[in-house]
Specification:
The chain is mainly α. The chain contains 2 helices and 2 strands, in the order ααββ. Strand 1 and strand 2 (75-76) form a beta hairpin.
């Protein structure tokens, strides 16, 4: 395995590469004319068909808790980016 210095050097190299890529990207899009880009699409029909009655899943809580990797009673224990 590499030493602590090797790891830090690699981190610095990655940071420098990211900064360089972001600067290059910012330079490339600086003169981008976004007035020609549509911000929405109009459709004749909706893709989602509204239902007559709301979905009243009485077992929703149990299904969510069963699907959660960790739970405490009626609560889900989750970390940021931990539940995939």
């Amino acid at each position: 395995m590499g030493s602590e210095n090797d790891r830090k050097e690699m981190e610095e190299k990655v940071k420098d590469d990211v900064k360089r890529l972001l600067a290059k990207f910012a330079e490339e899009i600086k003169n981008f004319d976004d007035s020609k880009v549509p911000f929405f699409i109009e459709r004749e029909e909706n893709l989602r068909v509204p239902s007559e009655e709301p979905d009243d899943s009485r077992d929703f809580r149990q299904r969510m808790l069963k699907n959660a990797p960790q739970q405490d009673g009626d609560y889900i224990i989750a970390e940021k980016k931990g539940w995939k």
